[in-house]
Amino acid sequence: REALVVNAAGPTGRPLVLVLHGAGGTAGGVLARTGWRAAAARGGFVLVAPQGADRQWNDGRTRTARGVVSAADDVGFLDALVDSAAARYGADRRREAAEAAFDAFP
Fold first, then answer.
1. Alpha-carbon distance 86 to 81, whole Å?
2. Is the per-residue pLDDT at 16 higher than 70?
């Protein structure tokens, strides 16, 4: 599994924002179509855009439009990303947020 990190360099204690792509999308796509990169630069926060397994998330659905249900441990994956961002980029675990509107601009 992978994730794109934006605004990684900077002081410790910065907020962390996770931006999840929509079903069928990609981490790179959600960053390209939204203003999150610029928002991270303006706001000084660490931005992480994870890639869902098979371009989707295991959000508890039993049926999807594509007919494929993910069995990936996305909660574990996202939790590990938060831990990694705190350790590698100095993000503050007490100041984290997740964007679940997918391609919405902040």
1. 9
2. yes
Q: What is the largest CA-CA distance in the chain?
A: 44
DSSP secondary structure string for all residues of 10-79: S-TTEEEEEEPPPTT--HHHHHHHSSHHHHHHHHT-EEEEEPPGGGS---S-S--TTS------HHHHHH
- Under the banding of pLDDT at 50, 70 and 90, the label for residue 30 is very high
- The pLDDT of residue 101 is 53
Whole-number Å distance between alpha carbons of 104 and 102: 6
Residues 6+ apart with CB under 8 A from 12: 90, 92
- Write down the pTM of the prediction: 0.87
At 67 the pLDDT is 75
Rounded Cα distance, 6 and 49, in Å: 8
